[in-house]
Amino acid sequence: MKKALRGIVVLLLLVTFLLGAVGGCSKKASTKASEKVLVIGYDRDAEIMDTIKTSWYSDALIYIHDRLVSRDYEFGYQPGLAERWEVSEDGLVWTFYLRKGVKFHDGSDFTAKDVKWTIDTIKDPATGSPFRADLDAIKEVQIVDNYTVKIILNYPYPNLLFNLSNTAAGIHPANAYEKYGEDYGKKIVIGTGPYKLEEWIPGDRTVLVKNEDYNWGPEWMSNRGPALIDKIILKIIPDESARIMELETGGIHILRNVPETYVEKLEKNPDITVYKNPATKLGYLAYATDKEPFNDVRVRRAINHALNKEEIIQFVFKGIGEVAYGYLPPALKDEYLEESSQLAYEYNPEKARQLLAEAGYPNGFKATLSADNSSKSSKLAEIIQQQLKEVGIETRIQLYDSASYADMLKEGKQELFIREYSWPNADILDWFLLSERFPYPNHSRWRDPKTDELIMFAARRPTWAERAEAYKEVQRYLIEQAVWAPIYVPMNIIAVRKEVKNFKYHPWMLQYNDGFDIEVE
Amino acid sequence: MVPVIIVMTLIVFSIFYFAPGDPVSRIAGPNVTPEVYESIRRKYGLDQPFIIQYLRFMKSVIEGDLGVSILQERPVIEMIKERLPVTLEIGLLGFLITFLIAIPVGVIAAVKKNTLVDYMCMSGTLLGAAIPTFWLGMLLMYFFAYKLRWFPISGYGTIRHLILPGFAIGLTNAAVTARMVRSSMLEVLNQDYIRTARSKGLFEKVVIYRHALKNALIPVITLMGLRLGWIIGGSVALEIIFSIPGIGRLMVDSILARDYPVVQGSMIVLTSSIILANLLADVLYAIVDPRIRYS
């Protein structure tokens, strides 16, 4: 009995202690009062803090590293760590002249050998880098002198600028893996960027501190020196409504990828500004084009005619988003085919039924409609099912978790299926539609010599302008063949609290070092 | 304990092996060539047959090595060491709250049997038992963090972060436990020795706390031991809602990404701790009830 009593006393003491601690910890004292800290909310964390080894990288890597080429606010390719570059007449030799006086976070100087090591490591099959294929065009990297690098290509490839400006192309110090061993990409990441990695607690938060020595920001930035904000915390909040509440109460200052359903509520909040810009994403309904009845172009066109895209956008995205006509998002201004809207198939269920009848399906047909199990995709599936039913196509919806979905597509079990891609370059068409990518990622199972020819021609034009023109031709052909049924281009929705000053929207990455500031109470 | 773990790993391993999807798609991203894809699969031995993969895994477990995460490329044991204490903190706080609520409520309801107080306690606990933990967590978050701003909405780091999830576990768990305490108390109160105690002229308080409660606690302790698994299960949802980097979230993330070694490793650790908790409950009997002796 005495023992039981003693137990109760111990419990009571513990409670008193806990309550006392609660009172004492009312404000966490880890940050100094004068420090400017920006907190950004994310739904999931990266697995590895290394641009070379994963395709799901943390946004922190945008600020930790610099790249040879930078991208300005207008989707233009501008000098980054390379001050300038030259391309030989035949488009095969690119010479990059590197910026001098740039230092890595570990104090070492940035030189040509760091560029070579980074590219060589990505290209080394033993690394298993997901970006290896992106740099396929590169034959070798030659060091001319400490500040000059020659990149020799296998074939003309103007898109090199895109690949070298990707987050994945962040420059690492030479021999980083040997130098830092197992910890590299976990506890240590070294770049030349405006922020350094202070701490990474996987699944919880990443803390970045500003690089005081930084003075090599690209010319197009208003602030080329050290950032104004002292610390950036990337905070992982997996639950959607918790993320919104954190933003409303000031627990986070910036939230990217705000769900459409919350936009109206946030726009009413005087403390929050919501920025909406067309994303470089495309949502579409695809089908296994090598299977009956989708191998018939009339059936594919009928499906295109059957979709009321405005209604879909209204129903799924509360009207936030744009109708997609072509195969690329309009934000890729150089390559986007302007006349897509005229060429595309308008909503016309009558015509759809007629085309189906011509193809030998006067009473329509039955098929499965697959999608991943996100709430967005299941809503899409629901309304698409309804619209297809109007023209006689009976579908059965099948939802998968993302890993099983990818597997199912690889095995080729799909009939009709919903996809959305997110990629700021026309070469996405290479990935999804070249015969050599069959059966994955060419999951619409499109093997067509004419498409291959058009795409390969476009991808290897010597100049950017010629490449853009050639990709327009690809799009004309794809629309004619109705390879997919493009549906929507979603918006990039970013919500920003009033404490953040000088916010500038950037289509690819928010440049927090470019004069962004934050008010501290 | 060992057979339980072997059966458990075999089940988890087969589910993963036969379920569609693999971790490589996650590492490689959507834009990957088949060659790169295959080379990553080979790197982690995912191209090997089931039995080889399983034996390889068990061999390293026996050697005390839970393997390396495919996605994070870090030792699983290290990841568990980071995450488990977080979950335990919430779980212990939840347990504490459970006891502090359940015992008084159960005792009062039993003593005041069939009065208004009893009815109120019992309908309250019925409600508590019916509310899912995650839903209660969301309600608590909405009122105490979002509306009243007494606590942070999400995250981990200070004790203030633990209070709401701790209460979410504690309250739902206390509801079930209080009902258990009540019925067990009622049973004990009808025993002859209680009548004897009363007829000795002891104060009612002494009868209830010294003689009745102690004996009534035995089944409650068994229940609590068994509830540990349930608490960890409930904390998975809470860890997601409150953005707490605990072992539950680690498991869910790893399951979705098909990161087999991490799921297996966490399952082994969790299974062992549940077995240990039940063992602990058995030991506690001996303390509470001196008649029970293990020889």
Structure description:
Chain A is built from 16 helices and 21 strands. Chain A has 521 residues and is an alpha+beta fold. In chain A, strand 15, helix 12 and strand 16 form a beta-alpha-beta unit. In chain A, helix 8 packs antiparallel against helix 11, helix 9 runs antiparallel to helix 12 and helix 15 runs antiparallel to helix 16. Chain A starts with a helix and ends with a strand. With 295 residues, chain B is mainly α. Chain B is elongated. In chain B, helix 1 runs antiparallel to helix 12. Chain B has twelve helices and no strands. The mean pLDDT of chain B is 83. At the A-B interface, helix 1, helix 6 and helix 13 of A face helix 2, helix 3, helix 5, helix 7 and helix 8 of B.
Which features characterize this protein?
heterodimer; A: 521 residues; alpha+beta; 7-stranded mixed β-sheet; disordered N terminus; B: 295 residues; mainly alpha; elongated
What's the mean pLDDT score of chain A? 88
The Cα radius of gyration of chain B reads: 24 Å
Strand proportion of chain B, as a percent range, falls in under 5%
What amount of the residues of chain A lies in strands? 15-25%
Strand order of the largest sheet of chain A: 8-9-10-1-11-19-12
Biggest chain-to-chain interface with counts: A-B, 62 and 65 residues
- What is the count of β-strands of chain B? 0
Number of helices of chain A: 16
- Return the string of H and E elements of chain B: HHHHHHHHHHHH
Largest sheet of chain B: none
The tally of helices of chain B reads: 12
Q: Considering DSSP H and I runs of 4 or more, what fraction of the residues of chain A is helical? A: 25-40%
Termini gap of chain A: 54 Å
Task: Output the structural class of chain A.
Answer: alpha+beta
